[in-house]
């Protein structure tokens, strides 16, 4: 394929894909929420908020057929968070294992022998699952042909390119869908497809950014907290619950903090992220907690199971995970 054919194309956002007015699900009014200039892509993006479901939509957004060219080569540090074996990596690994254990407990601690990490990125959560569920077989799935370096030659762990994954029908006891749903064109369709890959009694754990958070409120433009052009959506509680319900999933949804002060500091100073920024971020974490107390945490997490066949849905519960 030629270099020209690998260019990302952008299309205007005119409707909200999360609900259907013809089924009585509100209207398609999109209101301007913010505008952000993205220097790397030399584009200005509008953030539109759906008046019916509350989701925030990026306008314009990468076309479905050219989206993968945004990710090939794992060039985006913010999306791939490479593992370099530093002290911070060990700390992030500990938090990843803690999050997996917490979600597993919230989901009722089902037996886990097969795990899917869909949109595995650097593989941090694939490795965390392998360590938490020691005897399990882990499939890590992403766009790239080659696995990330850390996932090579790990016993019991298999890397699959996305097309290969679609060609299989293997079922999983535990599916991780972390920082993925906001990147795909059809969040409800993605959730439906993954729910079909859940084994009986299996659970899905997902995380998405929250539009109603301190990070986006204070740093939406200056730090590209909207995640343009990568994030096609930024959810709120209502739109995430709607998506899960439409996908036939029962869910427990909760807000969760993510240490971001070091990232904000590096971006504000226009410097590459380093250990010094991360250490300063640790010292500034109390400031982040104060801002979150006013405006909300950055991550919405959900522990999901297939909805009961009689149509009943568990009442969603809101709990706050300590950070
Ligand atoms: Zn909507």
Structural description of this entry:
The protein is α/β, with parallel strands linked by helices and 323 residues long. It has a single domain, classed as Vaccinia Virus protein VP39 (Rossmann fold), CATH 3.40.50.150. The protein has 9 helices and 14 strands. The strands form 3 sheets. The chain has an 8-stranded mixed β-sheet with strand order 8-7-6-9-10-13-12-14, sandwiched between helices. The protein has a 4-stranded antiparallel β-sheet with strand order 2-3-4-11, with no helix packed on it. Strands 1-5 form a two-stranded antiparallel sheet. Strand 2 and strand 3 form a beta hairpin. Helix 2 (87-106) crosses helix 3 (124-132) and helix 8 (261-268) crosses helix 9. The longest helix has 21 residues, at 275-295. Mean pLDDT is 88; it is low at 310-320. It binds zinc ion. Zinc ion binds next to loops.
Instruction: Characterize the biggest β-sheet.
Output: 8 strands, mixed
Rg from Cα: 19 Å
Number of strands: 14
Cofactors, ions and other ligands in the entry: zinc ion
Total number of helical segments? 9
Report the portion of residues in β strands. Answer: 15-25%
H/E series, N to C?
A: EEEEEHHEHEEHEHEHEHEHHEE
Protein structure class = alpha/beta
Kindly provide the name of the CATH class. Answer: Alpha Beta
pLDDT averaged residue by residue: 88
Shape: globular
Q: What is the count of distinct domains?
A: 1
CATH architecture: 3-Layer(aba) Sandwich
State the helical fraction.
Answer: 25-40%
Q: In whole angstroms, how far apart are the ends?
A: 45 Å
Looking at CATH, the homologous superfamily is Vaccinia Virus protein VP39
Uncertain parts:
310-320
Biggest sheet strand line-up: 8-7-6-9-10-13-12-14
């Amino acid at each position: 394929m030629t270099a020209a054919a690998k260019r990302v194309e952008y299309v205007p956002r005119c409707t909200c894909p999360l609900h259907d007015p013809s089924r009585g699900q509100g209207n398609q009014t999109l209101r301007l929420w913010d505008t952000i200039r993205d220097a790397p892509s030399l584009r200005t993006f509008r953030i539109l908020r759906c008046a019916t479901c509350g989701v925030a939509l990026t306008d314009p957004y990468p076309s479905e057929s050219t989206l993968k060219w945004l990710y090939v080569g794992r060039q985006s540090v913010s999306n791939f968070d490479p593992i370099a074996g530093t002290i911070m990596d060990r700390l992030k690994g500990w938090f990843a294992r803690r999050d997996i254990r917490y979600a597993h407990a919230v989901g009722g601690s089902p037996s886990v022998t097969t795990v899917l990490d869909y949109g595995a990125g650097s593989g941090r959560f694939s490795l965390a699952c392998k360590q938490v569920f020691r005897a399990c077989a882990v499939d890590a799935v992403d766009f790239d042909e080659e696995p990330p370096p850390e996932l090579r030659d790990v016993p019991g762990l298999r890397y699959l390119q996305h097309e290969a994954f679609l060609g299989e029908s293997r079922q999983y006891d535990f599916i991780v869908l972390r920082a993925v749903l906001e990147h795909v064109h059809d969040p409800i369709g993605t959730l439906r497809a993954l729910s079909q890959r859940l084994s009986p009694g299996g659970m899905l754990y997902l995380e998405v950014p929250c539009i109603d958070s301190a990070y986006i409120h204070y740093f939406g433009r200056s730090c590209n907290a909207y995640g343009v052009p990568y994030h096609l959506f930024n959810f709120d509680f209502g739109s995430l619950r709607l998506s899960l319900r439409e996908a036939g999933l029962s869910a427990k949804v909760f807000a969760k903090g993510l240490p971001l002060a070091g990232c904000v500091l590096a971006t504000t100073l226009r410097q590459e992220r380093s250990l010094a920024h991360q250490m300063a971020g640790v010292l500034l974490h109390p400031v982040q907690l104060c801002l979150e107390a006013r405006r909300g945490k950055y991550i919405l997490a959900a522990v999901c199971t297939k909805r009961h066949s009689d149509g009943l849905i568990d009442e969603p519960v809101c709990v706050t995970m300590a950070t």
